[in-house]
Amino acid sequence: MSNKMPEVREEHTHLPKKKEKERPSGIRSWGILLGAFVLSQIIFFFVDGTSWEPNMNDSGNILGRILESQLFTEWITIYSFPFFNLATTVFAIVILSTAVKEFLFK
After folding, report:
1. Each residue of 94-105: b (16+ CB within 10 Å) or e?
2. Using an 8 Å Cβ cutoff, are 87 and 44 in contact?
3. Which domain of life is it from (predicted)?
4. CA distance 18 to 71
5. Looking at the predicted structure, is the pLDDT value of residue 6 above 70?
6. Which terminal CB of the chain, N or C, has fewer other CB atoms within 10 Å?
7. Is 44:84 a contact under the CB 8 Å cutoff?
8. What is this structure's pTM?
9. Contact assessment for residue 54 and residue 105, using Cβ atoms and an 8 Å cutoff
10. DSSP characters over 24-85
11. How far is the C-alpha of 46 from the C-alpha of 79, rounded, in Å?
């Protein structure tokens, strides 16, 4: 009896492997960022001025003072609910800072 293993032949070794298409990570991160911004704006638009607005007990803390400031009650008045104005402003700052960072450092 022979202890030889049968010979294994590799087929198609001369064919190149297909490369998978990869999306650049910058496009994906921008898509997620802008998608989240648009989704939040749609939600804010439909909830603003309705009984669905969050009932926030923000009097006396730092968030309450920020929301009651002139910046979010008179200058930035996209929505009637000041928290939505604050969230939109923060989101816009994040988007702009990301754009500047990518433009200057790439």
Report:
1. eeeeeeeeeeee
2. yes
3. Bacteria
4. 56
5. no
6. N
7. yes
8. 0.69
9. no
10. -HHHHHHHHHHHHHHHHHHHHHHHTTSTTS-----TTSHHHHHHTSHIIIII--SSSSHHHH
11. 10
Q: Which residue has the tokens 């022979």?
A: 2
- Amino acid letter for position 22: E
Residue with tokens 């496009």: 27
* Rounded CA separation 26/55 (Å): 37
CB of 88 closer than 8 Å to CB of 79: yes
Tens-place pLDDT, residues 19-72: 555 556 778 888 999 999 999 999 999 999 898 888 877 667 888 888 888 998
The CA distances from residue 81 to 18, 24, 36, 51, 64, in Å, are: 53, 38, 20, 11, 12
